[in-house]
Amino acid sequence: MSKTAAIIGGGVIGGGWAARFLLNGWNVSVYDPDPQAQRKIAEVLSNARRSLPGLTDVALPLEGTLTFCDTIAQAVAGAVWIQESVPERLDIKHATLAQIQAACDADAFIGSSTSGFKPTELQRGALRPEQIMVAHPFNPVYLLPLVEVVATNMVIDRVASAKAILSSLGMYPLHLKKEIDAHVADRLLEAVWREALWLVKDGIATTEEIDDAIRYGFGIRWAQMGLFETYRVAGGEAGMKHFMAQFGPALKWPWTKLMDVPDFNDALVDLIAGQSDAQSGMHAIRDLERIRDNNLVSMLRALKAQDWGAGALINAQEAAMRAGTVHGAVAADLDPAQLVETAHRTVPLDWTDYNGHMTESRYLQAFADATDRFMTIIGCDAAYIKTGGSYFTAETHIRHIDEVHAGALITIRTRVVLGEGKKMHLFHEMHEGDRLLATGEHFLLHVSLETRKPTAPVPQIEAALMRIAAGHAQLPLPAGIGRAIGAPR
Ligand SMILES: NC(=O)C1=CN([C@@H]2O[C@H](COP(=O)(O)OP(=O)(O)OC[C@H]3O[C@@H](n4cnc5c(N)ncnc54)[C@H](O)[C@@H]3O)[C@@H](O)[C@H]2O)C=CC1
Ligand SMILES: C[N+](C)(C)CC(=O)CC(=O)[O-]
């Protein structure tokens, strides 16, 4: 049975949390007194549905159920995880946490999205202080994995369980062992924000020029290596020590305004808001969110291909999702009389083109991934390939039968047309539900990676392949098999 998360406060951040839980199969109960909350959450959810499920190359669990509640007590009843995301005011947080604790299970986890308060501040006057922790996420919560966990007073086993829940949602819980105002990431962001406000106030740069300084340069570096690893590389062959020797003295030069904060008066607000309107006012906020999400998905999937940073996290989540399902199965587990399910995934945002549908090269990618999966099933996995044997594709024929869009759930089933000796002939069928979208027919040869010449696979692989081929030979022939371009259907 699905677990339930309660979201108390369903604004920008609460809406993002609701989407993160729902799309990972949890039921979600929301309490928010704003009469517009349902509409706002529906809009956040629709952005999340088009972006999050396509991050992984396997499908997320079935979406949970969303319920709006009239009281906090109703929302938290039976919830395993309760996430408080009310406005950043300690009096509102205290009043809300008191209502939550009066009604929730004593062993439920209570996370606060607070950007700056320490857990001991949140816990002041609480019924069960040790139940409350900071779980500080980053916007958009449904796409960005980082969540800072600060759990002063909580026993270590509970912290481990809380982190395990967040990890199961595809998040990266960064456990801060000491509490501090604004945690770690917001301390860093505040420093940049402070400097940026000075630069605008002093007329040195506009909001757009500051954004350009970030997005054309160090912002791209930060997304993949952060600060210290980037500077280590910047030190050249001599590394970090050389970097520090060269740039350390600059810390004493007047490069920064350090801790000074410009007066946050109407003039400054109008200056910044006016420049921001000139820079971005032509886009509605939801449009900007979609532009942001398209870019984030493309960047995260690029990091996934490198198995690096936030991309490596997605690969780890994917491996956990495959375990124990047909997508982690090997040949011996499968009924040879059935086609083999080699993909069940959502079409990612970065697979679509100027025609608004999945672009042709991605059909080949989907089929190639399905072939890789089939190779693993018969034993030609990463460990085997390291021993010097693999399959090379010699010929491919793709039929594009119907269009498909980002966010669609697609399934590929694979038929072995021929499997003996060094030859492997596969026929993949891609469906969305009952709708046939495409077929991919591929002829592969087993090769020695040393000689780069065709050679027979090890007997276990050949036996697994022949067993499935014999089963599939009993099935009726699908339409389109063996077809060449221009031949009658
Ligand atoms: N916006 C951001 O970039 C981030 C914000 N946060 C933190 O998340 C929390 C929420 O911030 P946002 O979502 O940005 O604010 P928001 O203003 O978008 O949402 C707050 C929501 O709380 C609701 N609310 C007000 N009083 C309530 C109550 N007594 N009970 C239940 N709901 C109530 C409001 O109707 C509103 O929908 C804050 O603690 C903030 O520091 C954390 C990470 C990023
Ligand atoms: C501006 N902010 C302090 C609310 C930002 C955050 O808390 C995290 C984020 O998403 O940048």
TrEMBL record:
<comment type="pathway">
    <text>Amine and polyamine metabolism; carnitine metabolism.</text>
</comment>
<dbReference type="Pfam" id="PF13279">
    <property type="entry name" value="4HBT_2"/>
</dbReference>
<dbReference type="GO" id="GO:0047728">
    <property type="term" value="F:carnitine 3-dehydrogenase activity"/>
</dbReference>
<dbReference type="InterPro" id="IPR013328">
    <property type="entry name" value="6PGD_dom2"/>
</dbReference>
<feature type="binding site">
    <location>
        <begin position="9"/>
        <end position="14"/>
    </location>
    <ligand>
        <name>NAD(+)</name>
    </ligand>
</feature>
<feature type="domain" description="3-hydroxyacyl-CoA dehydrogenase NAD binding">
    <location>
        <begin position="5"/>
        <end position="177"/>
    </location>
</feature>
<keyword id="KW-0963">Cytoplasm</keyword>
<dbReference type="InterPro" id="IPR006176">
    <property type="entry name" value="3-OHacyl-CoA_DH_NAD-bd"/>
</dbReference>
<dbReference type="Pfam" id="PF02737">
    <property type="entry name" value="3HCDH_N"/>
</dbReference>
<feature type="domain" description="3-hydroxyacyl-CoA dehydrogenase C-terminal">
    <location>
        <begin position="184"/>
        <end position="250"/>
    </location>
</feature>
<dbReference type="InterPro" id="IPR006108">
    <property type="entry name" value="3HC_DH_C"/>
</dbReference>
<protein>
    <recommendedName>
        <fullName>L-carnitine dehydrogenase</fullName>
        <ecNumber>1.1.1.108</ecNumber>
    </recommendedName>
</protein>
<keyword id="KW-0560">Oxidoreductase</keyword>
<dbReference type="GO" id="GO:0009437">
    <property type="term" value="P:carnitine metabolic process"/>
</dbReference>
<dbReference type="GO" id="GO:0005737">
    <property type="term" value="C:cytoplasm"/>
</dbReference>
<dbReference type="InterPro" id="IPR008927">
    <property type="entry name" value="6-PGluconate_DH-like_C_sf"/>
</dbReference>
<dbReference type="InterPro" id="IPR026578">
    <property type="entry name" value="L-carnitine_dehydrogenase"/>
</dbReference>
<dbReference type="GO" id="GO:0070403">
    <property type="term" value="F:NAD+ binding"/>
</dbReference>
<comment type="similarity">
    <text>Belongs to the 3-hydroxyacyl-CoA dehydrogenase family. L-carnitine dehydrogenase subfamily.</text>
</comment>
<dbReference type="Pfam" id="PF00725">
    <property type="entry name" value="3HCDH"/>
</dbReference>
<dbReference type="InterPro" id="IPR036291">
    <property type="entry name" value="NAD(P)-bd_dom_sf"/>
</dbReference>
<keyword id="KW-0520">NAD</keyword>
<dbReference type="GO" id="GO:0006631">
    <property type="term" value="P:fatty acid metabolic process"/>
</dbReference>
<comment type="function">
    <text>Catalyzes the NAD(+)-dependent oxidation of L-carnitine to 3-dehydrocarnitine.</text>
</comment>
<dbReference type="InterPro" id="IPR029069">
    <property type="entry name" value="HotDog_dom_sf"/>
</dbReference>
<comment type="subunit">
    <text>Homodimer.</text>
</comment>
